[in-house]
Amino acid sequence: MNKKRIWSIIRIVVISLLLAFFFRSYLFASYVVNGKSMEPTLHDGNLLMVNKMIYDWKNINRFDVIVFHANEEEDYVKRVIGVPGDHIEYKDDTLFLNGEVVEETYLTSYRNGEEILTHDFELEMLTGERKVPQGKLFVLGDNRQKSYDSRDIGFIDESSVVGKVDLLYWPVSQLNFHLTK
């Protein structure tokens, strides 16, 4: 091979590595699900691709599956149930958002007809707030009986959100691009 061809290959490899580093560092992140709090949507050991930039361009929506910094050592994966201004209540295993019944289709495969997934609560009873405050989110795990979420830790800061889970990519047999409602 001549020197010109070698330098061309080196240039392509370096540019590819720089682009991969940029995408990995600033646009996307890979996360591993740790625990059962998001079953049946996500399972322990699933690999996720998190879009870190999406919320720079649009608001966080109800039912988005997000990753956020729970503390300095841990990140959690949960589903957004309430955004600023929302009043949240669960009664008879039914979600009421701002007084309206909302069907949680992502829980359908978890329901067996007899077992209650989400015990009754009202936002004010848990947090002392009637509505989700500005700059905060109310999040729950899909496995409501085994999830450590806003019912325990309270609201999370919007600024703690790493990004939106856009893709479940491992195991390949569970490949999923649609983790929202």
From TrEMBL:
Residue ranges constituting the Peptidase S26 domain according to the UniProt record: 7-170
Enzyme Commission number: 3.4.21.89
Subcellular location per the Swiss-Prot or TrEMBL entry: Cell membrane; Membrane
Membrane topology field: Single-pass type II membrane protein
Main localization of the protein described in the UniProt heading: membrane
One of the record's GO molecular function terms: signal peptidase activity
A Pfam family that the UniProt record links to this protein: Peptidase_S26
CDD domains linked to this entry: S26_SPase_I (cd06530)
Catalytic reactions of this protein: Cleavage of hydrophobic, N-terminal signal or leader sequences from secreted and periplasmic proteins
Domain of life: Bacteria
Keywords linked to the UniProt accession: Hydrolase, Protease
Family stated for the protein in its record: Belongs to the peptidase S26 family.
Name recorded for this polypeptide: Signal peptidase I
Organism for this UniProt entry: Gracilibacillus marinus
Taxonomic path: Bacteria, Bacillati, Bacillota, Bacilli, Bacillales
Gene of this entry: lepB
